[in-house]
Request: fold
Amino acid sequence: MDQFGEMTVFLRVIEEGSFSGAGRRLGMSPSAVSKLIARMEARLGVRLFERIAAAIRLTQEGERFRIASQRVVQAMEQAEACVRVADAEISGTVRIHTALTTAKYLVAPRLHLLLDRHPRLHLDFVLGTERGDFVRQGIDVAIHSGRPTEQTLIGRPLMLRPWVIAAAPQYLERFGHPEQPEDLLQHRCLNFTIRTQWNRWTFHEEGGLKTIDIPSHIGANQGELLRSLALLGHGVVRLAHFHIAADLERGTLVPLLPQFQERSEDDRFYLLYPRGRSLAPRVRAVVDFLAGEFS
Reply:
């Protein structure tokens, strides 16, 4: 038996708590397992187990060898999984949690690239601006702004999300252009009713950063409605550039105060997925795709 096989037997003895238990699981006799462990101990020059009557217990050297052996076995399993996944067709359902605007304007236009590559893959979108509950909602992957604080999640940084302040031409004809950030306090502004930190608009000036709490003329919990209200001329809005890029290009929304705009790491998107467990091939395929598209 090679060294990898020996490590497998060694770890099985630990799991079962006896040579006989490991033998039953592996189809070996207890004496064969005992002799194999003895050969390992002789080669390594240390005792891996203390034999106490009918029981066994790891020595300090055995504990160190256990940790190292588990790493080797896990690495081998991951290597084989990579080959199997490469040869196998990805299938199954992946649940993605993100905001409506992120799904509609960033993810949806690129999905054909993913689904053409994995035609048996199915996607379920769970939409919401607040962080979802991975366990309760059965979420596999999420895209949200701001560095995650949950210890149970891995957060891979993606693209920055710059904000743009804008209004429709008909609104500006009626109420005029703001020249300074403070002028917005005299304008009709459209704002979020959730994540109220988004209602604190930050500007870059010579003396540093200035943050202004902007009162809402009309509020909503979805950016897509705020965009529609702005297009109808109801007020000034602050939304992500990707959300209103086409409106800015067409001129149906006009950018305001661009000289005062600044980018912040707090507005970076993050790709979130559970920590501490191997991802299923279907989830890994989605994670790798999204990271590649938006990194």
In short: The first strand starts at residue 49 and ends at 52. The first helix runs from residue 3 to 16.
